[in-house]
């Protein structure tokens, strides 16, 4: 299948990066709740580990200039975002890019905000988990307690911004974080992704911009040290714990976390996500909510048959049926399911009131949504919340044989070889046995599109109906008895 966006060297233009960002944004809101929270916990731990690295690198560097010391710390902190991207994680500051999916009407406002809330909660749990481990390990005692003193000073500094300052620092921070994520859309190479994320992260950290998830770990770490460090810790440093009495949960929430979080939303969701969406989406594209993918039939087997039943009427145009049943994006899911059940269909195209194809909704989408919500779905769910936005379509001029092969055969599975022609899997099964045992994930129903307009539907039923004549006619037992009584006893 053609990806339409990938080039031969796996690099992408800015316009193609926007398409990657749209897929990224939809993916943020498409995961099951349990998966989202679990990955968010992981990301919270990763960002906390990055701050542990930052504190370690910047502790005891009295002979290094202020700027270089913070730059070294910023380089160390970039490990956090690298871990999130490479190892997998849901980070609130990058999840706000799902604003693109909302702008494209791929998801509802409720689903977007719900995703943000789940990721934010999971990030906080991850930060608290790492805080517990760091506290139990007494890392604040490192370098004679200088590590802990550094952590206290960093945490205290974060609580002394004015609300507008904290908000602005949050905007600047997530502007850079989301730009770092955005740059990863230009390539599929993991090493390249790692390298291009380092400098944006190093800049926001070294300059003192504010990251809400990092602060979920950093400030509570300072509060924990201030409240639970033993007396020997303070005596060894010659510092009084009362100097850090302003490290309280109330100050953390109202003086830092709330304004910084709001700033992060604006910096990433608006200045990066919606800005690029507005730049690269024309008015027509801003309302077109579907990505049309045309299956690649170039590698299908070309048959040279003299059988007239295959030579005549082999095209989609001759066998497709009218798309009389379509759904609306804003239609309640319950109503859409009722329509599909009443028409004995497994899915249907989704059209806007001006007849633009914007998605495909199926019973499978509803079943997945039920599982994701523990079989307690949102009663307000609309078709546009669940439908597939990437639609595989065919042309009326496509061959029935091409589509039949595409539906049932995957050459990459049938012939398991690398790009260099080296076999990647060995088997004793014959070609036909491999084909019969093959399980592939391909649509059973294709919208038929001509000149960007939906003109029909073709399913497996129509494909099989078109090819049924190759099996010949079934001769009834009565007909056989009239012509050859002995053959009837053979059949029996």
UniProtKB/TrEMBL annotation:
The keyword Secreted does not apply. GO terms for molecular function: formate transmembrane transporter activity. GO terms for cellular component: plasma membrane. Keywords: CBS domain, Membrane, Transmembrane, Transmembrane helix. SMART domains: CBS (SM00116). It is a multi-pass membrane protein. Residues 320-380, 387-477 form the CBS domain. InterPro entries: Aquaporin-like, CBS_dom, CBS_dom_sf, For/NO2_transpt, For/NO2_transpt_CS, Formate_transptr_FocA. It is found in: Membrane. The chain crosses the membrane at residues 37-55, 75-98, 119-140, 166-187, 253-279. The keyword Membrane applies. Pfam families: CBS, Form_Nir_trans. Belongs to the FNT transporter (TC 1.A.16) family. This is Formate transporter FocA. The lineage of its organism: Bacteria, Pseudomonadati, Pseudomonadota, Gammaproteobacteria, Vibrionales.
């Amino acid at each position: 299948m053609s990806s339409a966006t990938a080039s031969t060297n796996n690099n992408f233009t800015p316009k193609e990066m926007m398409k990657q960002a749209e897929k990224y944004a939809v993916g943020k809101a498409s995961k099951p709740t349990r998966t989202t929270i679990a990955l968010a916990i992981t990301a919270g731990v990763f960002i906390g580990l990055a701050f542990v690295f930052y504190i370690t690198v910047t502790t005891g560097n009295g002979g290094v200039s202020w700027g270089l010391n913070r730059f070294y710390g910023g380089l160390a902190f970039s490990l956090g975002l690298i871990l999130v991207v490479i190892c997998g994680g849901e980070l609130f500051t990058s999840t706000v890019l799902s604003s693109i999916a909302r702008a494209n009407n791929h998801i509802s406002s409720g689903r977007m905000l719900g995703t943000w809330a789940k990721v934010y909660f999971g990030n906080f749990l991850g930060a608290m988990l790492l805080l517990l481990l760091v506290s139990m390990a007494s890392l604040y005692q490192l370098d004679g307690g200088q590590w802990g003193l550094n952590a206290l000073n960093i945490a205290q500094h974060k609580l002394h911004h004015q609300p507008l300052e904290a908000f602005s620092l949050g905007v600047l921070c997530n502007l850079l974080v989301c730009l770092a994520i955005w740059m990863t859309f230009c390539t599929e190479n993991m090493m390249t992704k790692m390298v291009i994320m380092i400098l944006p992260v190093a800049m926001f950290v070294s300059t003192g911009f504010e990251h809400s998830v990092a602060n979920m770990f950093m400030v509570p770490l300072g509060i924990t040290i201030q409240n639970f460090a033993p007396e020997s810790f303070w005596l060894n440093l010659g510092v009084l714990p009362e100097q850090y009495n302003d490290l309280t949960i109330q100050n953390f929430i109202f003086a830092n976390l709330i304004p910084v979080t709001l700033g992060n939303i604006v910096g990433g969701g608006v200045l990066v996500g919606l800005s690029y969406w507005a730049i690269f989406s024309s008015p027509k594209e801003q309302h077109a909510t579907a990505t049309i993918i045309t299956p690649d039939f170039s590698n299908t087997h070309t048959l040279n048959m003299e059988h007239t039943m295959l030579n005549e009427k082999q095209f989609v145009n001759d066998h497709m049926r009218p798309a009389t049943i379509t759904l609306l994006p804003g239609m309640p899911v319950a109503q859409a399911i009722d329509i599909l059940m009443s028409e004995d269909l497994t899915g249907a195209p989704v059209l806007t009131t001006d007849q633009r194809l914007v998605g495909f909704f199926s019973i499978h989408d509803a079943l997945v949504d039920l599982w994701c919500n523990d079989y307690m779905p949102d009663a307000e769910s609309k078709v546009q919340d669940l439908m597939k936005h990437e639609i595989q379509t065919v042309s009326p001029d496509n061959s029935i044989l091409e589509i039949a092969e595409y539906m049932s055969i995957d050459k990459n599975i049938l012939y398991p070889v690398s790009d260099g022609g080296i076999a990647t899997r060995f088997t004793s099964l014959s070609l036909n046995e491999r084909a019969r045992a093959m399980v592939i994930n391909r649509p059973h129903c294709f919208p038929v599109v001509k000149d960007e307009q939906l003109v029909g539907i073709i399913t497996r039923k129509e494909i099989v109906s078109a090819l049924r004549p190759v099996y010949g006619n079934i001769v009834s037992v009565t007909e056989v008895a009239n012509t050859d009584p002995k053959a009837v006893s053979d059949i029996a």
